[in-house]
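Margin note: ligand = beta-D-ribofuranose.
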Amino acid sequence: MTGEKVLLDCDPGHDDVMAILTAARYADLVGITTVAGNAALEHTTRNALVTCDLAGIDVPVHSGAAGPLSGPTHDAVHVHGNEGLDGVEIPRPVRTTAGADAAGFIVETTARTPSLWIVAVGPLTNIALALRQDPALTQRVAGISIMGGGTFGNATAAAEFNIWADPEAADIVFGSSAPIRMCGLDLTHQVCADGEFIAWIEQLRTPLSAFVAALLDHYAQRILELVGEDLAALHDPCSVLAVTHPQLFGFGNHRVRIELDGAHTRGMTVIDRRVARGPVEVAWNVESAAVLELIRQAVASA
Ligand code: BDR
Ligand code: CA
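Resulting structure:
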């Protein structure tokens, strides 16, 4: 535990599960909010609750936005499955949600928790709604650590999924005065679960490790089928660790704009690398082995 206070906004999703476990292990996790993204909101919310059940994580879970601020609703069920966690039998959750107003919960929690980090690893809809509701939130938080964007895309040639799924929300968040730390695809593709990583988790032989190993095994296979590469990137826990273990990351400061139009580029993060003095801390490099070890330990100790 590093003492950093974190509210995690997520759309589980295989790698979101790893983010929940990592946040519970290394941060003072004050709550989880869920958003539609990888799968529909009812599924991402259920998956967050199930993860908390299996890992014994006792924090309030609030569901939030069922779709983007505007534009079509996109999902990533071709990667994560219709219910967001293909590869395992998803149990019925024991825990229940504490509310259905994620944005309200974010506003309240940032008001009563000094130096809180919001770690956002799904589409940024809930965070944008919270900023709309209370723009002064930007001055209260320690920062917003985002998994999203990059110099290339995965949802389209130019856009990463979380930004592409709600570009207007991303524009509000990146256009705010909140301190922003960003782990895009350039960074998260350096943190991949390979066969050895998954086997190590499997040999822990706990109910949680069996669940996680089956999830990661499926995820790795699916990515291999889709992109033809062993690229099971553990995107989302990177944004947690960028808060709790920033010494393992190399950052550059850049201005980042969100492309809202563009025949081929909607949802792209336009990172201005001409001057290294912008407001967003973009993570470019990471000590991959150390980060993977921290994630493994998070599963082992849950
Ligand atoms: C991001 O999109 C989702 O599919 C993952 O959970 C991650 O947050 C990677 O582009
Ligand atoms: Ca996610």
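The chain has one domain: 5-301.
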